[in-house]
Write the structure tokens for this entry.
Amino acid sequence: MRSALTLGVLVVAVTTVGCAKKPAAPFDTLVSSNVTAFRLQNYEPQPTAAAPGQPGAIPGLPPEISQWVQQGAAGLQQLIPPGLLPPGLLPGTGQGAAAPAPVQDTTPRFHGFRILGQTQVIDEGLKKDLAAILGKESNFDNAHAGCMYAEMGISFSSGAQPYDVLISFSCNQVNARTFAWPHPATGMKPGTVKDLSEVVQNLFPPGT
């Protein structure tokens, strides 16, 4: 009798653990979906001169992005995927803020953000990593800036309407664009940023 009871408890425990590890919908379908990852330009400065801002701020950029870039230059680069920023945003790496958009702008966009590069996610391991990161409720909290300047986008679909997600490292949050976000919070925890950064470095290797 005791053996049967022990076996029953073990089966329940294994089943519970298995369910707990399953990503929340719709991320539970990501591994079997067609997945595209986008590098995005998070902000397009206006051609007019920027008003004086906080000390150390980069002219032409919102304070959230300016602070993020300054932190990255001071050592946060280890958590910011190389190449994710548009050229010239980091001090000493280019010609300053991005140039104003041309009058006739035909640049492809993903939910309003310029696409700087994109790649099909073929590797099943990377798909599992994305599903595990984005599909786990405990990876998110409410500690995030009140903005959405996306540096990355994810779109996945199995033939029906695509599930599109914007990811902002500068605002430290995600935004579901074509579906209801499955978790109570959208702010990325420090560990979530680190894990996602490692995935992005494989999706967009430095120099690409």
In short: The chain has one domain: 24-42+56-203. Residues 24-42+56-203 form one domain. Residues 2-20 form the longest helix (19 residues). Residues 4-18, 91-97 have pLDDT under 50 and may be disordered.
